[in-house]
Write a structure and sequence with these properties.
The protein has 231 residues and is mostly beta strands. The chain has one domain. It has 2 helices and 12 strands; from the N terminus they run αββββββββββββα. The strands form 3 sheets. A 6-stranded antiparallel β-sheet has the order 6-5-8-3-10-11, with no helix packed on it. The longest helix is centred in the first third of the chain and has 15 residues. It is globular.
Amino acid sequence: MKVLFRILVVLVAWSALVSPATGSTKAVAIPSTYYLPNLMPFGDATGNGTYQQVYDATRFPGTIIIRSLSFVPQDFGLPGFFPGKYEISFSVTPKLVCGLDGNDLSQNIGSNSLLFFKGKLDGGVTIRGKAYTYDPTQGNLLVTIKVTGKPAPDPDILQAAMMRGTDCDGSSRAYNFPQEPAMGADNVGLVTIFVYSPVNVNSVQREAQPFRKSRPAALAVGDVKNGPIVR
């Protein structure tokens, strides 16, 4: 109950930020429950490297525009991302949850790849970036995070321990952190809160329909028909 309650609190907090006039921003958490803390990839103990996480397409409500990502911090230690440079990209991948390639991470990147965020992070649990349109009918969602510029870890400081879910709970990950060293894939993933705007598919379909010529109005005196003027 505590697990579910904590994520609900975060989602409610996000809902409070939505403009009541539009109500266009929503949030979904994947996995929906958390199990244990994990320092990868935002923590002080993992060093520089590459982290990937795949999310089950069926967990999303439909075509959406992703606005930001948030993560659930652990209760102990310093909250927020450990200082460093982070490059975050989205793509649609044919790989399954619990089926990422842990030996060659480039094999997991699929179509519609887009850079979402590139810059420094120091504290906080939310990343806002370039809007990304995701259509779950095209495949699962992959997030790739490249980490550089982290300072040496301080044994007296524990920072950026984020909660992860249980095995294959809608998500899994692959990673390569040579400073550890650590490379491979496993069946868990960080609880990720996607803040998004729904896409009105019906309106898009209406706009995409071919132009239909309306029935012409009855000719009146003064109109032109095949050259001569109607009298």
